[in-house]
Write a structure and sequence with these properties.
The complex is a heterodimer. Chain A is mainly α. Helices cover 76% and strands 1% of the residues of chain A. Chain A has one domain (70-299): MetI-like (MetI-like fold, Orthogonal Bundle), CATH 1.10.3720. The relative contact order of chain B is 0.13. Chain B is built from twelve helices and no strands. The chains are: A mainly alpha, B mainly alpha.
């Protein structure tokens, strides 16, 4: 009887776990390994040659001078992603702070919270496209400036450069920073702030000594999201970037799987990005844990 | 006294500055999409300042744009099928991870959120190379498989988190009182997680409707709505993009308000039961 019950339980256990494990194996784990395998193959004249080689990686890391070299593009993408991340954090913080601490009325608080959540659900392509009609040569900004008689001819400096890519990406990725940041600010015990004020700290001191350190886990989570997502974004650079100057690392990957049709090389660059991001995730995970631990200790 | 008054003044100027900054931030977040919506009613076919007058013309043009409507139908199909797969695989998976300990559980927790943590392009090319080896062509099936995979990554963690917030005692009480596993699931667990499941389904559906990076590598000639819009933005001026984007915006605002209201209701319920 007992063994039979055990068997039924086992059956249940594997029955509900098997589908998800099999699915993720098939469509996630094997594909990631497959990508790794692909990166060691070589594009032959007619078909892919299945003999292991480091050629793709050598090609990627051999530094050629000039802006077209893939390694240089990787650094450039890194730089842009860093700028986007810093801007997104700077923009998210006052809003998240204001909703948490600046509004006393529950109704207004809810309203502003909704205003902060909605951008996360707004379509990516709509956000990216909206900047093309604002910054474009015949776009709103230019026609507005002409209407004001500030300029006579439309200026081409707004669109198709790193500036337009950055501004659109910041716009797109702010909600990804805002949400974790909001949650971490929400979890700060209010009596800590009161205690700090009672002990004579002014608001600025309270902020830098109490609020900001406790919000760091949220900042780190959000910043990680913004950074990894902008590292891998190929659409914003394609829609809003210049023909060659704004080519980012993900665009090179995209090209290898498209017009250049060199999948193994594209896979190798993909693996490089993947490894970079995994290292970053491991690092930020550690830092975040460290700060959460501090929180827990301070909470005791 | 004087010092206190000074301090209060300082506080006030501080909060005024903060409010101004917040307004600027909200403007930055909303201005671009507001512009698109506004210009969907523009009489001129060029998006320039000042606007030419109001019209619904572009909405009519949009409805008669066959490829656009086809891609919309495709997107709804992919989102519906993908969400169903994600629910039917993700919810039992979350339940299993909650109930049982097994080797590799920690790894599974990490793997399932990979598509959410990594840029879509990586998951896209990984699945593409795999499907190519497996002999599955780019197209409808490939897109559905890709979407289901990252949607499991949104459904499972959300349901799993909700399960962990549940009081384990109610489940044990049910089993002790002689209910079977199935009865416990239907009458005890499911009512407690149903809003989380519904919220996850709604989020999955809208994520799928908006997804580009994974779809981009898997679609072939099969177009989804965002892929179609992307192609249209490259073909120069097509003002009906403004119209379709405005409609999507309206639907997403509805979705987020709706999902927020049900999750709020649920929080109230959870509080009252504790």
């Amino acid at each position: 009887m007992i063994t039979r019950q055990l068997k039924i339980n086992d059956f249940l256990k594997y029955g509900i776990l098997a589908p998800v494990v099999i699915w993720l194996m098939l469509f996630l784990v094997i594909p990631y390994f497959n990508l790794l395998m692909y990166s060691f193959w070589k594009n032959g004249p007619f078909a892919i040659e299945h003999t292991p080689t480091f050629e793709n990686y050598i090609r990627f890391f051999s530094l050629k001078k000039g802006s077209g070299a893939p390694l240089w593009v990787l650094f450039d993408t890194f730089r842009i992603a860093l700028i986007v991340t810093v801007c997104a954090v700077i923009i998210s913080y006052p809003l998240a702070y204001f909703i948490n601490f600046g509004i006393k009325n529950a109704k207004y608080k809810k309203m502003f919270y909704m205003l902060a959540v909605i951008p996360l659900w707004i379509s990516y392509v709509m956000k990216a496209y909206s900047w093309t009609i604002i910054l474009g040569t015949h776009g709103l900004l230019n026609s507005f400036l002409i209407w004001l008689h500030i300029t006579e001819k439309p200026m081409e400096v707004f669109l198709y450069n790193d500036f337009s890519v950055i501004i659109a990406m910041v716009n797109i990725y702010v909600p990804f920073v805002l949400m974790p940041l909001y949650t971490s600010l929400e979890q700060i015990p209010r009596n800590l702030i009161e205690a700090s004020e009672d002990l004579g700290c002014n608001p600025a001191r309270t902020f830098f000594k109490v609020v900001f350190p406790l919000s760091l886990p949220g900042v780190i989570t959000g910043a990680t999201y913004a950074f990894t997502l902008s590292m891998g974004d190929f659409l914003a650079p394609q829609l809003l970037g210049g023909a060659t100057s704004s080519t980012k690392i993900a665009n090179i990957v995209q090209m290898q799987f498209g017009t250049s049709n060199n999948w193994p090389y594209g896979a190798a660059i993909g693996v490089v990005i993947l490894v970079l991001i995994l290292v970053l995730l491991a690092l930020t995970g550690k830092v975040e844990k460290h700060f959460s631990k501090l929180d827990a200790e301070e909470g005791k | 006294m004087q010092r206190k008054v000074n301090e209060m003044k300082k506080n006030n100027t501080g909060s005024v500055i903060l409010i101004c900054v917040v307004i600027l931030i909200l403007l930055f977040l909303y201005f671009p999409v507001a512009i698109v919506t506004l210009y969907s009613f523009n009489k001129d076919s060029i998006n320039s300042f000042p606007m030419g007058g109001l019209t619904f013309h572009w909405y009519a043009v949009m409805i008669h744009n066959k490829p656009l409507i086809t891609s919309l139908v495709n997107s709804v199909e992919v989102a519906a099928v993908g969400t169903c797969i994600a629910i039917f695989i993700g919810v039992p998976g979350a339940l299993g991870m909650h109930k049982y300990n097994f080797p590799g559980k920690k790894a599974l927790e990490k793997i399932v959120i990979m598509p959410m943590m990594l840029p879509g392009i990586i998951t896209g090319i990984a699945i593409l190379t795999f499907l190519e080896m497996a002999g599955i062509m780019q197209g409808r099936l490939a897109v559905i498989l890709g979407h289901s995979t990252f949607l499991i990554g949104t459904v499972l963690p959300q349901v799993y988190t909700r399960l962990r917030q549940l009081d384990r005692n109610i489940e044990e009480a049910s089993l002790d009182l002689g209910a079977s596993e199935l009865q416990t699931f239907c009458y005890i667990i499911l009512p407690n997680i149903k809003t989380a499941v519904f919220g996850a389904a709604l989020l999955s559906f809208s994520l799928s409707m908006d997804e580009i990076p994974v779809t981009y590598f898997l679609n072939g000639v099969f177009t989804t709505l965002p892929i179609r819009i992307l192609a249209m933005t490259r073909n120069g001026f097509t003002p009906e993009i403004n119209a379709i984007c405005s409609i999507i915006l309206l639907l997403s605002v509805f979705a987020v308000v709706f999902s927020n209201s049900i999750s709020k209701k649920d929080e109230g319920y959870a509080k009252s039961t504790h």
